[in-house]
Recover the amino acids of this structure.
């Protein structure tokens, strides 16, 4: 049974298969959609919560990279009331068929859709809503779908205005006329078209989507949908935008991930406690946070089960994390189960789950302009060792005083 919007059957597809290399080392052992956010949420929670609050009940999650970490969190769709006998949440794992030879792994998000064309057709959906799983925003998709049907668009793309125009080179750039019709589209251009970018929320008519994917497959031009699929539909002259009002951020890089946490601390993120639109997650029940007499917390988020005996300033302390006496954590993200031992100094850093920062170790910088540094999951920075900005300790590695150059790595690529 498919959800109906304006009398049309709607299928929602969330693309959750990307490797997320720009978020490494956070994604070295966990799929990007399952990366924690604000300690208690996962990135995919925002798309899934928007889906269910929009009245959409038929949701496919297309997976590829490290799917087990994501499946554990999804719990069959139960936290979002999507565990249904008919419809609901369906996980689409990587697969191969007779035509795929040794494998059917997707090489881009348009290719991921193309691999499922027969299943999409068999679903009976007349409209396909395609979402990414690593953006933080609130949106009712029903009006977007209604506008799409009213205009008869080949594709409707939700757009937003980003803060820094130079960042537009990371996204699909869009220009539209006064009626919202797309007049120009550029995928990750060297020179931005402006501050308007696509939010990776797209509505398609099923038949046109499938026929266009088929044509592109015959031409060997699938890849990501910004490369060929969207330009092909824009060329028709009937692509439209739907401007998103309110907060939106792609947290696909370490710097954006860190910035999103700062935004919520500054009160410019989303209202997470809106009873009409709660953001839903699947989480473990934790005991209360414990603040020791010597602990000091200023302008921070502290999750259940954490224990604070040191100083925490403008930071997130995740579930079960510990900040011991004399330790300082500033402008940082400390994820679940991590321990900051006595006297350690952590600044502008991301400390992944179960990592340990030894006594009197120094991680990151104090300057507001210092580059980030990252300590991977279950890694250890031993007592009195130093991890400079723009460096990472890989998951499970040990950084000791004197061996920093052998263990620490430069943060690679765009972060």
């Amino acid at each position: 049974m498919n959800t109906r919007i304006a009398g049309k059957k709607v299928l929602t597809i969330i693309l959750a298969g990307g490797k997320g290399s720009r978020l490494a080392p956070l994604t070295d052992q966990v799929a990007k959609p399952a990366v924690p956010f604000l300690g208690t949420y996962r990135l995919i929670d925002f798309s899934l919560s928007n889906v269910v609050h929009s009245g959409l009940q038929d949701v496919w999650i297309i997976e590829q990279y490290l799917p087990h970490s994501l499946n554990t969190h999804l719990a069959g769709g139960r936290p979002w009331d999507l565990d249904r006998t008919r419809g609901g949440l369906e996980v689409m794992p990587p697969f191969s068929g007779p035509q795929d030879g040794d494998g059917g792994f997707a090489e881009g998000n348009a290719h991921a859709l193309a691999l499922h064309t027969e299943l999409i057709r068999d679903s009976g959906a007349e409209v396909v809503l395609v979402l990414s799983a690593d953006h933080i925003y609130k949106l009712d998709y029903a009006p977007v779908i209604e506008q799409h049907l009213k205009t008869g668009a080949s594709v409707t793309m939700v757009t937003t205005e980003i803060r820094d125009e130079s960042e537009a080179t990371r996204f699909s750039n869009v220009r539209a006329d006064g009626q919202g019709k797309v007049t120009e589209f550029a995928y990750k251009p060297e020179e931005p078209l402006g501050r308007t970018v696509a939010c990776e929320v797209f509505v398609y008519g099923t038949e046109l989507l499938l026929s266009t994917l088929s044509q592109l497959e015959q031409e060997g031009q699938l890849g990501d949908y910004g490369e060929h699929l969207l330009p092909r539909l824009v060329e028709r002259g009937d692509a439209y935008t739907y401007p998103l009002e309110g907060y939106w951020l792609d947290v696909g890089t370490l710097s954006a991930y860190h910035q999103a946490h700062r935004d919520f601390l500054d009160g410019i993120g989303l209202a997470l406690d809106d009873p009409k639109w709660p953001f839903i997650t699947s989480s473990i029940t934790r005991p209360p946070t414990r603040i020791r007499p010597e602990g000091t917390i200023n302008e921070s988020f502290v999750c259940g089960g954490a224990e604070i005996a040191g100083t925490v300033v403008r930071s997130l302390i995740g579930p079960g994390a510990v900040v011991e006496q004399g330790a300082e954590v500033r402008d940082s993200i400390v994820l679940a189960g991590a321990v900051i031992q006595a006297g350690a100094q952590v600044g502008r850093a991301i400390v992944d789950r179960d990592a340990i920062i030894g006594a009197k170790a120094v991680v990151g910088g104090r300057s507001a302009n210092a580059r980030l540094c990252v300590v991977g999951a279950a890694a250890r920075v031993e007592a009195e060792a130093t991890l400079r900005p723009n460096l990472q300790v890989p998951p499970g590695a040990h950084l000791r005083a004197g061996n920093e150059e052998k263990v620490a790595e430069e943060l690679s690529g765009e972060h």
In short: The chain has two domains: 3-265, 290-410. The chain has a mean pLDDT of 91. The first helix runs from residue 44 to 53. The chain is about 20% helix and 30% strand.
